[in-house]
Amino acid sequence: MRLLVLAVLLSAVVLFPSEAKRMNIYGETIVTEITPESGAMWTRVNDKEPMFPIELAKARMAGCTILSFDVIESGKADNIQTVISIPNTKISQHATSIVSQWQWQTAQTPTAKESHTVRLDFCLGLESLENTQQACAKQIQLPCE
């Protein structure tokens, strides 16, 4: 009897494949430097926008976070603190991970630590990357609060 039920179920899977369509999710991450506004000693080595975290895409989570940190003599971010994170701290955890991986460089010697504040916006869309980028351009104009 069990074999018969199993055979029927397997036949159903083969004969009637899933009707569910695969959904595309488009993610965009935008970094905005808040401080220092100009004349920074330290600049990011690679200022390319970071990839949207896959965990946030799976959870369909979008939002923003503001982080403050110090760039130290080794060219790494130190003392990373969350100023605000919307809608929750999960966004902040991913933003902190991104910032901690950045490499910084300076043209000045001797190098001293410098305080920075950045905003990371995580935007999601279902239609297209272009629509997601347009929505993100609007999101970064809104306060992160």
Structural summary, described in words:
This protein has a single domain, classed as TonB (TolA/TonB C-terminal domain), CATH 3.30.2420. The protein has a 4-stranded antiparallel beta sheet. It has a two-stranded antiparallel ribbon with strand order 2-5. It is of the alpha+beta class and 145 residues long. The model is unreliable at 1-20 (pLDDT under 50). Helix content is 30%, strand content 32%. The protein has helices at residues 2-15, 54-58, 89-101, 129-139; strands spanning 26-35, 42-44, 63-71, 77-86, 104-106, 114-125.
Labels describing this entry:
alpha+beta, TolA/TonB C-terminal domain, four-stranded antiparallel sheet, 30% helix, TonB_C, Energy transducer TonB
Secondary-structure blueprint:
Elements: H1 2-15, E1 26-35, E2 42-44, H2 54-58, E3 63-71, E4 77-86, H3 89-101, E5 104-106, E6 114-125, H4 129-139
Antiparallel strand pairs: 1-6, 2-5, 3-4, 3-6
